[in-house]
Amino acid sequence: MPRLSPTLIRSGLAFAALGVAFLGALLVLADQSAGWALIAAGVPLSGLLALAGDALGGGFSRTLQDRTHQLISETCPWMWLIALYAVLHVPVPLWPEGFGVLGLASTAALFVGALLYAAERVGWGRSWLMAGLACGLGLSAEVIGTRTGVPFGLYSYATAPDPLVLGVPLMVPLGWFALTLSGLLLSGGRAWLAGLLLALWDVGLEPLMTAQRYWLWSDPNPLWAGAPLQNFLGWWAVGAGISWVITRIGPEVLRARRGETQISFAVAYPIEAFFLPGGLVLVGRYLEAAVTLLAMGLGLGLARVVRARRA
């Protein structure tokens, strides 16, 4: 049996601790005060395990101390924004009415993180060009889609909360850039695979965002949460297209810098794979949560296999 890498051990334990915090949130929603204790324990524990979970067998304290010092000295600005993006997901169960505010804030943090990550590798000029074209292409696809049904199918943003850009929620074009960059990094620069990862992400977005009335489907051929098969093909095409544009503008964005930590902006995708099914559980969509977890998990596994073959 292959041995798990230290990074995988730390990630698994950290997500398990976040799961404890999530369980606590569910208990709080059920008026069980014990849930607050689980939240208070799970959130900080996830941070500790993310740093030194692979040293639980011995030397945990020393390892935690050394890695904390290293983290403070080596953490790039985009990493703090990734952390903020993740933290902003935590209050959602405790403040359901704030879903829109927290969703926009977390997506904005992710967008700025993606911009900073790209700027470190290709400079500010090309970073802004990447972001502008990605957001512009994503926004154009949404505007055309809501008016013509191409490329996603028949849907509407009529019930979406402000702020809107040309009738589209602001968080949507911001997300097209940030999550596409994450998927592109996971895929090792393969536009087709990045598009597939985005389509698998949308498997969870559709039931969650329609439940929150961010968009409504009226397509005559629904396949999943009101969305037709065309929607997922459209997500693949738009995601792959944006990925192709990013690789042409700044292929260096895919390369790790000398002496850099192994963590890259790709980590945004597995964070979504954790929180998105959780959000579906909170709105009572248990089957959709399970399918989303399976779909995004398969995407992560496929990306790992494809990258390993190239290596």
From TrEMBL:
Tell me the domain of life.
Answer: Bacteria
Any stretches that span the bilayer, and where are they?
Answer: 12-30, 36-57, 78-95, 101-119, 126-144, 164-186, 193-212, 232-251, 263-283, 289-306
Q: Does the keyword Cell membrane apply?
A: no
Name the UniProt key words of this record, in alphabetical order: Membrane, Transmembrane, Transmembrane helix
- Record InterPro entries: CruF-like
What is the protein name given in its UniProt record? Carotenoid biosynthesis protein
